[in-house]
């Protein structure tokens, strides 16, 4: 696997204080620059930016491995041990999961741990992990 460079994503939120508390306190993302309209966060080395934008489109879901996966969504592929530690942290914080942490595609190519939850603005996040990172793009 080649070296991965940080990605950047900007996403809408309807309450910057709620975003600051969720991403900064609950998820533990260090805060970067901010204004009264947006906040930068460091999500496992990636730059995510919560932008104040109260109006959003309706939600959509696609079936994957017997679950309704929310679209759009974003997140990070974590190391196996980090995934479990992070999942335990979220459970302890009382996060309500859209899809509880579990092993997807068990025994198949691309087997992975995954979990989905929403931020306070309703944005869907997925965090996943592979025991073998070589499976990330396996067919």
Structure in words:
- 17% of the residues lie in helices and 42% in strands.
- Strand 5 (60-64) and strand 6 form a beta hairpin.
- The strands form 3 sheets. Strands 7, 8, 9, 10 and 11 form a 5-stranded mixed β-sheet that branches. Strands 1-4-3-2 form a 4-stranded mixed β-sheet, covered by helices on one side.
- It has 2 helices and 11 strands, in the order E-H-E-E-E-E-E-E-E-H-E-E-E.
- The model has no long low-confidence stretch (mean pLDDT 90).
- The two termini are 15 Å apart.
- The protein has 139 residues and is α/β, with parallel strands linked by helices.
- The chain has helices at 16-26, 80-92, and strands at residues 8-13, 31-34, 38-43, 46-52, 60-64, 67-71, 73-74, 77-78, 97-104, 112-118, 124-129.
Summarize, please.
With 139 residues, the chain is α/β, with parallel strands linked by helices.
Structural class by sheet pairing and helices: alpha/beta
How many individual helices?
2
> Helix coverage percent of residues?
10-25%
Global Rg: 15 Å
**Gap from first CA to last CA:** 15 Å
Strand content: 35-45%
- What is the ordering of alpha helices and beta strands? EHEEEEEEEHEEE
- Largest pleated sheet: 5 strands, mixed
Which consecutive residue ranges, at least 5 long each, have pLDDT under 50?
A: none
Mean pLDDT across all residues, rounded? Answer: 90
β-strand number: 11
User: So what's the overall shape?
Assistant: globular
